[in-house]
Structure formats: C-alpha cells, structure tokens
Design goal:
Rossmann fold, single chain, Ketoreductase domain-containing protein, two-stranded antiparallel ribbon, alpha/beta
C-alpha cells in the first residue's frame, strides 16, 4: 500500500543511482509507485576514479540499488552509462525509454568533484566538473523534453547545493582554503538553468525544480570532503523533497530552488523512510545551515 504521493504508472530516470543520494532518490520514487531506471558507471562492479590526488574505488553498484528496491516491493531497471562518454550520454534517454516505454521524471543527480583552489586545479578537473553538473543535465533534459511533451506532462529535478547560493561578507574563513569555487559555480549554473528551463517549459506542463541538501549528507562519494565531526542530515529528507517535486502540475510547483530540511518543514510535508513505510520526525532546519536558503524554495 502506497502512502504519501502516489506516482504509480510513472517512469523515472535517476542518474548516479548506484549509491548515496541517487540511490536514496531511486528508492523513494520506487516506493511511491514509479518504475525507476537507475543508471551509473557501476552496473554490477564498483567503479574507480581519481579524486583528491589518488585513485580509489567507491562502494556501490546498480545491482545493489535494484535489489534494495525490489526487496521493498518496487521495480527498478539498471542501465549502465558513463556520462562523460558522449555516445553513452546522448543515447541514455532513448535506452531508458526502450526499457520502460515512457519517461515522466528525470532526476539529474550524478556528479563529480575534486576540490582544489583555482590556481592549482587541472583543466581536466574543471572540465569534468562542468560536464557532470551542466553538460550532462543539458543533454539529458534536451532528450527528455520530447518524451514529456508527447505525454502532456513531465517533471525534471536537478540536484543542487547550498554552496551555489550567494556568499555574504565578510567572507567565511573556509572559503579561502576549501577549494570548492568551481564546484559551487557549477551548482550556481544548475540553479539558473533550472529557473530558466522552468519558464521555457511551463506551457508544456513540465515542472523543473532543483533540490539540494540543507547542510551536508554523508555518502561514499562525499565522505572525503566532510569533516568527521560535522553534523550531517538524513538523506531521506532530500529524497522526500525530490518526490514532492515529481507529481504536481507545473503551474502549481515549478522553478523552485529547494533544500531538504527547509522545504518539508515549511510546507508541513511528512518525510517518510526510503521504503515509504515510516514517517520520520518533523525536524526543524539546523541553525548552521546556509542563511541564504529560502525555506519556500522561491
């Protein structure tokens, strides 16, 4: 039995869903009734990459994500894709539609970051950062629009970050050493892309929104960048916020830049566990979250 928003009969594509935030989003959408196409490089074997100056293998596979969803009673289909490979990227939407027959929801979640000050950042790191956060969402969205227009509705959710928001003066001390300038610029581009695209697609009843953590979410991919003592949040709040962006008509909810703890709190949305069975505690946004966050997303 589905409780909360019911998106049965819808098909979703979630990038970067072999672990972390993408996996959680896929689980929550599946629990709400969607058939979810999960995609990443790691189909049934963990993928490696070079970050923070070293090569490492990051835990998580699509096979594991599919099993979690199926064990909870949902349906997921794995489609391998390296978003840095132009051919694989350009064909991903068509391959997803071939598997499920339609595409109603697109979640652009996959990412790459390797923090370094601009003066020290290799050009390939800059390129890979913008490939993942700007080029790939553009390409996938462009391919998804005809499918959604043909269906008469659609929902696009881009995963953003509070680091994309304006910086107050005096500058916080961490900005001088964090090395997150390029990452934050890419996420700021995601926000503006989201709002402009929302305006372009409103008449087609395609909602476009962005969702990011209110603070930080500890995942296998992000663990290198989050201090061990930093208080992180439950990924279920972000997954629920994505679900909230994936079912209302565009004229009711589009063009928002929402954050995981703030949005459900502001709109009194019940946040459920990733399998949809349990309601989590109503939790006020932490005092240490970015003061530039708009609780309403507007």
């Amino acid at each position: 039995m589905i409780t909360g928003p019911n998106i049965s009969g819808k098909a979703a594509l979630v990038t970067g869903s072999s672990r972390g935030i993408g996996r959680a989003i896929a689980q929550r959408l599946a629990a709400a009734g969607a058939t979810v196409v999960v995609t990443a490089r790691s189909l049934d074997k963990e993928a490696g990459e070079t970050r923070v100056g070293a090569h490492k293998v990051v835990p998580g596979t699509l096979a594991e994500t599919v099993k979690l969803i199926e064990d909870a009673g949902g349906r997921a289909i794995p489609v391998g894709c390296d978003l840095e490979n132009a051919d694989e990227r350009e064909s991903l939407v068509d391959r997803a539609v071939a598997e499920v027959g339609r595409l109603d929801i697109l979640v652009n979640n996959a990412g790459f970051c390797d923090f370094a000050p601009v003066a020290d950042m290799p050009m390939d790191v800059f390129d890979r950062t913008f490939d993942h956060y700007v080029r790939a969402p553009f390409a996938l969205t462009k391919a998804a629009i005809p499918q959604m227009r043909a269906a008469g509705a659609g929902w696009i959710v881009n995963i953003t970050s509070a680091q994309a928001l304006p910086v107050r003066r005096p500058f916080p001390d961490y900005l001088a050493v964090s090395g997150d300038t390029v990452y934050s610029a890419a996420k700021a581009a995601v926000n503006r892309f989201t709002q402009g695209l929302a305006a372009e697609l409103l008449a087609s009843n395609i909602a476009v929104n962005a969702v990011g953590p209110s603070t930080a979410i500890r995942t296998p991919g992000a663990d290198d960048y989050i201090p061990g003592e930093y208080p992180t949040e439950d990924v279920a709040y972000l997954a629920e916020t994505v679900l909230a962006m994936s079912h209302l008509p565009a004229n009711e909810r589009t063009g928002l830049i929402a954050h995981s703890m703030h949005f459900p709190w502001h709109y009194h949305i019940d946040v459920r566990s990733l399998d949809g069975k349990d309601i989590l505690p109503r939790t006020e946004p932490p005092a240490w979250s970015n003061p530039e966050i708009s609780p309403s997303g507007e």
